[in-house]
Amino acid sequence: MDKKYPNTLGSERTVEIAFIEEMILKYHRPNSIVLDVGGVPSDSMHFQPIYKTIQEQGIDYRVSDFRGGHYRGDFVSYDFKDEKFDLIIFLSSLEHFPQCTESDVVYREGEDRKGYEKALSILQKNGTVLLTVPFGMHRWQEYHQNYDWDGILNLTEGSSIVESFTYRLIDEEWVLSDPLTMDDIIYSDRAYGVGCFVLSKNEKN
Length: 205
Prior knowledge:
single chain; 205 residues; alpha/beta; nine-stranded mixed β-sheet; two-stranded antiparallel ribbon; globular
């Protein structure tokens, strides 16, 4: 990942899409099955670099989303039967779980943690999770969570952070920053901080 990114997409997607594209290339294995949780995007044009990478690598790419995809429904309660996945992606989706997994406005305490636990349960033993979230002050905000470092550690219990990249938006440029210095950032009219994490499943899980 680069130290700086011009804010070309006008949001945290600038960093997130670059991260997912780069890490898919780095962590996918031959015959990998990739599951994108919440993978029905609001603007599919922004996601073209990811789709191009998936197509060029011949990756078996599947989507789980309450709005559609290969596994349509609530991810937390969905029955994947015996299916396992090599790589699971949460691109700015897990932070929404407390409120919109059922496409309503009911707040569900801890639903993001349940979503992560579900991911670990269907991840192959040597599998990888790619996670991006709004980052800064840890608090619930309407429609999504905002996480700090401790919040990420609590959310991702049962796995280990392999790589992490946290960026702050400064003068329309995303700048790589120390996560422990970002607790003043809140999501107001837009995201001003974003965290991107590569995680591996702990063996006991």
